[in-house]
Amino acid sequence: MTGACLCGAVSITLNARPEFINDCNCNLCRKAGAAWGYFPSSEVTVSGDTVSYVRTDKAAPGVAVHSCAACSATTHWVLIESFKQQHNLPDQTGVNMRLFDPDELSGIEVRYPDGKAWTGDGPFESRRAAMTISDSLPW
Predict the structure, then answer these.
(1) How far is the C-alpha of 138 from the C-alpha of 109, rounded, in Å?
(2) How far apart are CA 103 and CA 6, in angstroms?
(3) If we measure between CA atoms, which residue out of 81, 13, 91 comes closest to residue 45?
(4) CA 93, CA 37: separation in Å to the nearest integer?
(5) Which one, 45, 50, 53, 118, has least CB within 10 Å?
(6) pLDDT tens digits for range 22-47
(7) Where in the chain are the domains?
(8) Fold of domain 2-132
(9) Three-class SS of residue 72?
(10) Rounded mean pLDDT of 14-23?
């Protein structure tokens, strides 16, 4: 699968479809306009120039969010190495699945975690029931 930013300057190619997509409502995800699929970093190929942003509203931010240097569309995030090591996390990249044609996402479950209310401990609670992308339930 290959998706691209609005202007086409950045493309992301994936070796596989995501198991699910998280459409989170936390400040970062909501303001970035992103819904994330998660992949081992080795399965994600990014082409084109991006700029990164690391949150300043968290004492120990976990990711650097990348956007197209030309059109500013959010493309992906990468784990910050110190955060990854501190929490013993696998090498992972989050990809904004809104860069892909919705027809390519048919059959993938979309989950709605309540990141806005999440304290950082334990699993996310859902703010609504998950749905599966299909012709009758487009995303």
Answers:
(1) 11
(2) 17
(3) 13
(4) 8
(5) 45
(6) 999 988 899 999 999 999 999 999 99
(7) 2-132
(8) 2.170.150
(9) coil
(10) 96
